[in-house]
Amino acid sequence: MQQTLSFDERLFLWLNFDGGVAMDSLMEIISGWLVWVPLYLFILYAVWRKFGMRGLFAFIVCLVLAMGLADMLCGIFKHSGMLANVWADFPARHRPMFDAVVRDLAHVPSYKHGPYGTVSAHAATVAAMAVLSALTLRRCWFSWVVGFVVVLVSYSRIYLACHYPKDLALGWMVGIVCGVAMYYLWRAFYKTLERYKR
Hints:
The chain has helices spanning 7-15, 20-31, 37-78, 121-137, 140-159, 165-195. The protein is mainly α. It has one domain (23-78, 92-195).
């Protein structure tokens, strides 16, 4: 008897498809970090232009904290990383590529990933970066750009059969919370540094 698929599983299968070798390679690149180095350098340059070296220093500290915290929080639910044992009884959810329900229906370019996918650390860390930098720079066009980056990176995780849509939505929530929290920390940190400016 065929198992009934949930909405999350059906949406995943609708979004996941075989785009060929070129598409597989492109999505692997988008899902990686190297292609986004120019964006990060631009963000750092823009923060430096607007807030000077003190503002940039405070921003770098808070950016590292935002992305690091987002990654660690996601690790709780996947039983990985520094906080792997915080919630040892949590029933971790397999990635689609390892899920018996959909793995034979999905396009899986590579199996070089850990077994569990909820919550998506990729979605969380890129969302934390986007929220923190958008709140800091306050430019409408820039907010649209980083928002598009969040969607693009997140979709690459579906294409690669690493995450269900719900995994990504939960990752966005974690990232937004971390990004907003670190923005307020950055603001306080920057104001403190400015207070001691000669």
